[in-house]
Write a structure and sequence with these properties.
With 85 residues, this protein is of the alpha+beta class. It has a single domain, classed as Beta-grasp domain (Ubiquitin-like (UB roll), Roll). Helix content is 14%, strand content 27%. A five-stranded mixed beta sheet has the order 2-1-5-3-4. Strand 1 and strand 2 form a beta hairpin. It is globular and about 30 Å long. Bound molecules: FE2/S2 (inorganic) cluster.
């Protein structure tokens, strides 16, 4: 399974998941970010909105992990994360 690295709340994280996995699911299921939620997973409701450093709000259900590589994100509460293995 491919490895993906990005910054989350100013900390480097590394996770293994499919390239097509939506960022929001990685944040919730692999990194335990309970301050990030989702509903539609279609980019319409805005529930999954997080901040991309230097770019403003983004809908994390619309960012595939292949696109998250090397980017920097901040969750609404700046939750602590567990480093992926
Ligand atoms: S979950 Fe609805 S826009 Fe992302």
């Amino acid at each position: 399974m491919p490895e993906h690295e990005f910054l989350l709340n100013d900390r480097p994280v590394r996770v293994r998941c499919d390239d097509d996995t939506p960022l929001v699911l990685v944040l919730r299921d692999q990194l335990g970010c309970t301050d990030v939620n989702y509903a539609c997973l279609m980019g319409t409701c805005g529930t999954c909105t997080i901040e991309e450093t230097g770019h403003g709000p983004v809908r994390s259900c619309q960012i595939a992990m292949r696109e998250a590589q090397g980017r920097s994100f901040r969750t609404p509460g700046g939750s602590s994360v567990t480093l992926g293995d």
